Amino acid sequence: MEAKWFEIRDLHVKVVDTDREILKGLSLSMNAGEIHAIMGPNGSGKSTLAYALAGHPSYEVTAGEVIFKGQNILEMEPDERSRAGIFLAFQYPVAISGVTVANFLRTAINARIKAEAAAKNGGTVPPDVKGIPIPVFTKQLREALQLLKVDNAFAGRYLNDGFSGGEKKRAEILQMAMLKPELAILDETDSGLDIDALRIVSEGVNTIHAQNPKMGVLVITHYQRLLNYIKPDYVHVLIDGRIVESGGPELALHLEERGYNWLKEPEAEN
Amino acid sequence: MAMVQPVLKPAPVVRAGELTREFVERYAAALNEPAWMTARRLEALRVFRDTAPPNRHDELWRRVDLSTFRLDLILSGITPANTLLDVARSELPPALREQGVLFTSLEAAAKDHAPLLEAWLMTQCVRLSDAYYAALHGVFMRYGTILYVPAGVVVEQPLRTTIRMAADQLAGFYHTLVILEEGAKATLIEDFASETGAHQALYDGVVEIILAKGAELDYVSIQDWGRNVYNFSTERAKVGESATLHWVVGGLGSKFTKSLIEADLIAPHGTALLSGVYFADTRQQLHYDTQQNHIAPACKSDLLYKAALRDEARTVWRGNIRVFPGAQKTDAYQANRNLQLSSRSRADSIPGLEIEADDVRCTHGSTVGRLEDEPIFYLRSRGIPLREARRLVVEGFFAPVIERIPLEETRERLLEEIGKKID
Asked: Distance, in angstroms, between B250 CA and closest chain A CA?
């Protein structure tokens, strides 16, 4: 069977060193350029899906595959997945003390340049490979800072260290703008944002998508609120580790009105 | 007493307490130095012979394992020919020389500026009786940085010395003496290194810093000795009224290091900012004993020492803040942070406070932590390979201290060496 551009097939995931299975056969497929939303109540497995796709070491895939552009990404290291074009905007971004936003971004971009050069050179980085020229980097960074409406001093701060909730989420989308992924996964990006920050972050995502129309976006969210700003083409409902319903954008509104209970297994309601 | 054999032939073992006057006189004679300098060595010898060698019943040496160190063998072999150092010193602009700034070696200063040196050399700052290795240094001290800046003179450009010891040298005894008169300012960066030699070697250094009223000094010293070097140092700064000292210590090399580092705040409103960055790998042992002595009131001291460890390395930091009676309005802080990259490494962190005044603010903190998974995963999720992610986190750990180094070239070199240690 020919796989789609991005396809999750019968994915089973458990927490490492436990028997607790969280994803119980999740399947989903996307075409390039599409925006999909996954909605679900607390504990349905939303963040587990995000982490499993990014290769977090605390989650173990016990069955299934995830095909991205013909490759099973589950066989790849987390950094290889990123360089292959997958980006996860974290729900809880991690502080990296002592490493500035600018230094971190330049390291991440140069890691891509080096990996590409190594791939063309039998696996070793040729000694003459230089990183991104500083003026080019500076220009890109300035544009990204403007997009997220943060001032230039932001680039000199230690990554996520002492950032407010809103600053952390802006920093995630800033990274997305700089790293130009092909598939962006947004894990609860609206959590902890006030309405102004939510608007800035969403506009950031929409602008990046408009600039790279082939970029696929997978929005993982509990609430419909974010989908007022980032309009999905498809909406999927995740309950107890499986997709139980899929539809168009109207499904999100329906969930907003009626909640998730009508979709749960009948015995769960008894 | 047996005659001492020439170099390169097996010599009879000299126990530390048996170092003779003849031995030291012969050493001094070959250096062609002024008589007062030799007299000072003989005085040091007297103190050295009266000082008990380090033993593990002494709190200062309790965590130190020197069982494999053959100081006796090294002492018996010391000659002018195997205590050589290769020293390069940055050029002092002629205008500063005309203003009376002195930036020269111990030997040159002993000849040309005897009154200054006689008055200060191990008499008022570091004293012979301060430590066993201070006394030993006094016996054999050689080479050195003598920096003297007269009142009101500002040395804008950082002064640098690089000190290299050849891999086959037996010992080094470099002496740093910095005197800044009232309102003077300077930056001094010293860089010590050697290639790893086949035999045990001794480095025994002394640093003396004297800051008069309102003086400001940035002092950075980085050691990257070969892994055959047993490195001892006794270092003290006397910070005068409203003077400011920024002192950064970097430790990368040596098989074993024991550094005693003290800042004495001797007049009101002095400031001492003490930073340390050190990284121990393989079976290296790096020990730092720091002391913040608040002798006068209304002074400030702030110490931050950061260590990374991997393999089976060991670090020990013992820090003490002492507030003397009457040193009211003291503001003192000390912190030691350790990052363990391997579970076989061991970091000891022993803060201490001795407070004999009642109106003071003294705080301390120490932590020993592991390289956490979450930051590494986060960086990897941005395409940064594992090794580089680890390097970035460790560099970030050290960044707040490295940023205190006033010269970019030195910052870069330190980061590069840290990077090499991680890979």
From this structure: 18
